[in-house]
């Protein structure tokens, strides 16, 4: 199980180095945006 997680970590590191810091930053901002939208939707949910 640890082996598979380390393999995915290696893949993400490789992807990070190929795209550079700007791509990683944009990806993080996109993830935060999606999470924020989901939280807002859950908080504002009316049945």
UniProtKB/TrEMBL annotation:
This protein's GO CC annotations: plasma membrane
Family matches, as Pfam families: DVL
Subcellular location(s) of the protein: Cell membrane
Lipid bilayer topology: Single-pass membrane protein
Superkingdom to which the source organism belongs: Eukaryota
Stretch list, region Disordered: 1-21
Coiled coil: none
Predominant cellular place of this UniProt entry's protein: membrane
Keywords: Cell membrane, Developmental protein, Membrane, Transmembrane, Transmembrane helix
GO BP: any one term: shoot system development
Family: Belongs to the DVL/RTFL small polypeptides family.
UniProt-recorded name of the protein: ROTUNDIFOLIA like 8
Lineage, highest ranks first: Eukaryota, Viridiplantae, Streptophyta, Embryophyta, Tracheophyta
